[in-house]
Amino acid sequence: MRIVIAEDDALLREGLAMLLRAESLDVVATADNPTTFLAAVDEHKPDVAIVDVRMPPTHTDDGLRAALTLRRDHPDTAVLVLSQYVETLYATRLLSGRCDGIGYLLKDRVADVGDFLDALTRVAGGATVLDPEVVTQILGASRRVFALETLTGREQQALRLMAEGRSNSAIAAALAVSPASVEKYVSNIFSKLGLPPSDTDHRRVLAVLRYLDS
């Protein structure tokens, strides 16, 4: 099995390479940034790439976007994402096409070397291996998007104005409707987004967060 590792933490990168080589696996290249990583994939044509999500230059989702590029340009190369975070948008995109040869594991939940090696072997063999938390967050994001899609056009307009910090009276003026109509829109938004009355949560803020998250 030929492997390329993309990880900007030098200690973890080299430690992982040593671990895999000790298991007689062929680590053909390591990289600390997406550009070097993709160049290494082009050069070595590995069987599987291990990729961290947050890498230079932005340390946000650069690694995961590089994984998407890899899957486009080298569809036969398996990808195992190993990260501290679940980036639901790009994780969903990564899984939206061919799901064979894809893995997404959270670093702090990979406690057993044997389990990690088993996951790597299965991904290289064409399986899909996802941490349960990754599945939970992707499904949660999908449900939130679906809930927003159930809003009527007026309710979506009202929610967008809420996100701008507008009061109900300001929303009524902007939409040229009565305050009572806005109250109905807002009530429907709370209901469709699954935000019941609560003494501890501010439903208006939570609704806006759902909107922004989408």
Walk me through the structure:
With 214 residues, this protein is an alpha/beta fold. The chain has two domains: 2-131, Rossmann fold (3-Layer(aba) Sandwich), CATH 3.40.50.2300; 150-213, Winged helix-like DNA-binding domain superfamily/Winged helix DNA-binding domain (Arc Repressor Mutant, subunit A), CATH 1.10.10. The protein contains ten helices and six strands; from the N terminus they run βαβαβαβαβαβααααα. The protein has helices at residues 10-22, 34-44, 62-73, 88-96, 113-124, 132-149, 153-163, 168-175, 179-192, 203-213; strands at 2-6, 26-31, 48-51, 78-83, 102-106, 128-130. It has a six-stranded parallel sheet with strand order 2-1-3-4-5-6, with helices on both faces. The chain is elongated. The two termini are 39 Å apart. The model has no long low-confidence stretch (mean pLDDT 86).
Give the helix/strand class.
alpha/beta
Q: Give the neighbour order of strands across the main sheet.
A: 2-1-3-4-5-6
CATH superfamily grouping of the largest domain: Response regulator
**Residue windows where pLDDT falls under 50 for at least 5 positions:** none
Largest sheet: 6 strands, parallel
Number of helices: 10
Average of per-residue pLDDT values: 86
Give the helix level as a range of percent. Answer: 55-70%
> What is the first-to-last residue Cα distance?
39 Å
CATH class of the largest domain, named: Alpha Beta
Tell me the β content: 5-15%
- Give the topology string: H per helix, E per strand: EHEHEHEHEHEHHHHH
CATH topology of the largest domain: Rossmann fold
